Amino acid sequence: MSEKHIVVQGATCKCKFSVEPKTDKLKVKTQTKHYANDKDGSEKLIATDKDIGQTLEKNTFGKCKKQPAGNDYLPCQTQITKWSGSYEKMILSNKGKALLEDSKATCPMGAPDCIEITKHGQVAEPSEQNFKNANPMIHNLINPMVDVRDMYKKQPTYKGMEDSDGENINDIYIDKKDGSVLVNFSKLDGNIRMIAKYDWDDSNEIQDHKTKVDELIKLSTIVTVDNEQIQLKLQEIHRLTYKTEQQLYIVLDRDTAKIKAVLGLEGIDGRTTIESYEDIDPETKKVISKPMVKVDGIRYAILGQAHTHNLMESTPRNSNQIFGGETTENGFGTSSIDKGTASSMGINIYALDSWNYSSKNAQVKIGRVTPSGIETKNIGKTHGKGDGKETINIGLECLNLRVGR
Q1: Most buried one in 187, 293, 341, 371, CB count within 10 A?
Q2: Mean pLDDT score of the chain
Q3: Burial (0-12, 13-18, 19+ Cβ within 10 Å), 60
Q4: Which of 238, 235, 248, 258 is nearest to 350 (CA)?
Q5: Element (H or E) spanning 263, and its range?
Q6: What is the mean pLDDT of the segment spanning 10-19?
Q7: 152 or 211: whose pLDDT is higher?
Q8: What's this model's pTM, rounded to 2 decimal places?
Q9: Which pLDDT value is given to residue 237?
């Protein structure tokens, strides 16, 4: 999977029985929730094996070799009946499996797998997050004259604004509803501020910049990360793990402007479900917000998720493993399902290897997968009864990912 691209809207297809030959482009009509490709993860819909029927832009590849008519051929009228070679481990909300660049389609006039994908539809679009995730050592072996860390540190997005005292403002503003970035005046050392979208819109009607900034500061709240609360919750879901997975949502609290953790739904063997939702434009039917969750009647913007791994089968690898020799261990770190979720939701997913520890106060290893698919098996540990030196500030990581730091 790591060497194959996921197919998105606009992918180019061709048929082996096209006379010319001509190509056509894929249209995604079966889901409006899951996007890929661009730096914000919100431009091109992911295609699945549910995209059948007349699901191309023109629905023709020109003239069809399978339909001779005297000295010529009848025009193709493409009707896809099924796809093969989809990604079995990435199932989207429409119950469809994501298509890969080597997936093939069948047309009733042609033959099985007669339609193939020549361009997956994704476009390489370098973003600041790409630089941030790049391994500087590898990059410098390729281009020794450039240090990507310096590029990242020294390139603000905007010049910034000044308040009424003439002080430069480097603050980032995010929507208190879904945590989406409203503006990033810089990316250096400013605060991250939470503000209601209607207050943001009203403030932007003010013509004088200094007055505008003063008003924005008055109406907004600086976002903070409650790392202590998140660490306690991480240990709590490890303690709760027995025969089922547990999960936390890393969220933005609309009332306090704190990044904190809230308990999500209990899972089953090998899987937890994030019950998220987005705002949909009633006219265009397009998603117009970042993912959000509702827990105990309270709505939050979701910036990340952490879940435990429980035991699943037989034969322990170490004497400390829970349930001894009657069961086997789960896998270390994040899974292919986690990778798909991180990509589709645009958030970091963290996995606690709880299956591998008998003590409920253990310092449990944590794995992570980013929206770009970078997996790291041991980024740190839960606090447990340790000194906290190996903990990882998950809340800060998720916040920085959201705002592009």
Answers
A1: 341
A2: 82
A3: middle
A4: 248
A5: strand 258-263
A6: 94
A7: 211
A8: 0.59
A9: 94
